[in-house]
Amino acid sequence: MSPTVRVAVAGTMGRMGTIAREALQQSGEYCCGLSRRADPQQAIFDTFEGVLACRPNVLLDLTTQPGSYQIAIEAAVHGLHTVVGASGWSDDQRIALGAVAEQHGVGALIVPNFSLGAMLMMRFAQQAARYFPDAEIIELHHAGKKDKPSGTAAETAARMKLAGGRSPVIHSVRLPGLLAHQEVLLGGTGELLTIRHDSLTRESFVTGMLAAVRAVVHRRGLAIGLDSVFGETA
Known about the structure:
four-stranded mixed sheet, 36% helix, alpha/beta
């Protein structure tokens, strides 16, 4: 653990934000939070000025679009290394954040999924697409998830296409009882390869999230995904 990491959590009152705040408090890296509703006892503010007064050096953005883009850009402009856990970012928005991060000499990470298992699932799917160009993706999430397809599914499809496969069709499911699940189905002559990952609790995202906020302070410019923290795909 780096003693220089002081993390502000945007969206700290949300379900993932609460888990992030508790994990960072246990590690001694929590600095403050940003939320629509302030809670001074928890060092949670409803303005960015309040956050900056606590002197964080990393912003962990766990909000949703369109607010996520504005929050991340403002953080980078103020010299904060930024880790984005929100999905729904366009290519143009990614490019803009990367340019701002470079201009202000800070690191930025956009992480579609903080789960280590999901990172490996995307990595394996990219490798498999070299041999099985025909594939489809089924992503299943809780009923409250608004974006379709999920950021994880979109990133998986992009990596598979980059590896030489065809752009996979993505099927999105939103139902109560689910959290975050994805299947990649790759078809070949007389065989089917299935790569599946299931996050059963939000605690599955903590290890990757902590690794991301600790890594981003040593970077400049934009990187995408946990692979940039744990090693690029082969």
